[in-house]
Design brief:
Blueprint: E1 6-10, H1 25-37, E2 42-43, E3 48-55, E4 58-65, H2 73-82, E5 90-96, E6 104-108, H3 116-125, E7 131-136, H4 146-150, H5 156-179, H6 181-188
Parallel strand pairs: 1-4, 1-5, 5-7
Antiparallel strand pairs: 2-3, 3-4, 6-7
Helix pairs in contact: 1-5, 2-3, 5-6
Amino acid sequence: MDTAPAVVVGLGNPGPRYEGNRHNIGFLVLDELAARVGGRFKAHKSGADVLEGRLAGRRVVLAKPRSFMNVSGGPVSSVAKFYKVAVADLAVVHDELDLPFGTVRLKLGGGENGHNGLRSITKSLGTREYTRVRFGIGRPPGRMDPADFVLKDFSATERKDLALEIDRCADAVEALVGQGLIAAQNTFHA
């Protein structure tokens, strides 16, 4: 009998206008994971696009909410309920202002750090105790408002390494799914 799947959610905003934005790194990482699983996302009644498959030898559900990031909690909660997944088996891939570009950090629980997508998920789940896969996007330059910064595309310099960093973040998710949080942290926090 197969165990419950791991659910990996990538945060972003829907539509072509936002595709290359820093805030959409969760979607970009999930697109890489979908390529590894060998499938395509399909619309799901939860309000997310989902893909079921196997990753690192484990059943996995990849999900990209179709709502805007700031209200992504509903679709995330619906996916978890539909697949009968405990919060312990839920991981959220998101952008992180407080980490340098390309840095990947995994953690269980914690605050939202001003991230409205995480705030929405925490409110919908009723707990902060889900795993976060944080992809560093760095701080905005000068006095730029962080809200404006996250909705801008990656810079030309960042884009040179972006595919490599997305691949590394996908590796971290794969390690998390296959080996667990501690092992993934030991590998990717070095």
